[in-house]
Specification:
This protein has 195 residues and is α+β, with helices and mostly antiparallel strands. The protein has three domains: 32 residues, no CATH class; 68 residues, no CATH class; 50 residues, SH3 type barrels (Roll), CATH 2.30.30. The protein is built from six helices and seven strands, in the order H-H-H-E-H-E-H-E-H-E-E-E-E. The strands form two sheets. It has a five-stranded antiparallel β-sheet with strand order 6-5-4-3-7. Strands 1-2 form a two-stranded antiparallel ribbon.
Length: 195
């Protein structure tokens, strides 16, 4: 008989004073009513105004504005799939239908914006792109490399606006030095060249 896989660590309930472990959506069995109450207060999508008229207007807006506005601000291209209310309408029908209050976003940017709005803040964070391993290395020593992939952000422990000088080039990889003085050799497609 083989070994059993290790069990996942239990997480505490999201209610700070509770000492029980979470069983569903972050809450213990005693606090599941918090989830149901939140859902009841929010109402259905139809009750919030997302009906056939909205679907028609949404599709038209996405056809006219097909790219994610937040990605475009950073010089990246990502297809938008969601029409977002820049200022949350919170049931205000006039604000809901004000097309000047609409922007096209990709799902990840919209989810992040909504989550941060719920917490009381919203700041753009670049959704890391995947590396293109078939691309041609455009870098030379002395160039400035900007990280664009999740792997680069993780490996270098850096922020979206970080910049690194290329100190070495080898076929498909570049060597850069991080802020702590450590050198890293990564595939060039994890970066874009600063122009």
């Amino acid at each position: 008989m083989g070994k059993k896989a290790p069990q996942r660590a239990k997480r505490p309930c999201l209610v700070s004073s509770c000492k029980e472990y979470a069983t569903n959506q972050g809450y213990c069995d005693n606090h599941q009513d918090k989830i149901r109450k939140k859902d009841r207060e929010r109402g259905t999508a139809h009750q919030r105004g997302y009906d056939a008229r909205w679907e028609k207007e949404r599709l038209q807006h996405l056809a006219e504005n097909p790219l994610c506005a937040d990605h475009q601000k950073r010089g990246y291209i990502e297809v938008a799939t969601v029409v977002d209310h820049i200022i949350p309408h919170k049931g205000d029908k006039e604000l809901f239908w004000d097309k000047n209050n609409w922007q096209s976003l990709c799902k990840s940017c919209h989810d992040r914006k909504t989550q941060l709005e719920d917490r009381g803040s919203w700041n753009y964070q670049q959704q890391p792109a995947k590396a293109n391993l078939n691309s041609i290395n455009p870098f030379f020593e002395g160039d400035i490399a900007l990280p664009v992939s999740g792997f680069a952000f993780e490996s270098l422990n850096c922020k979206v606006d970080s910049k690194f000088e290329v100190i070495g080039v080898e076929s498909n990889s570049i060597t850069i030095e991080d802020n702590d003085g450590f050198t890293h050799r990564l595939h060039h497609s994890h970066f874009k060249k600063q122009v």
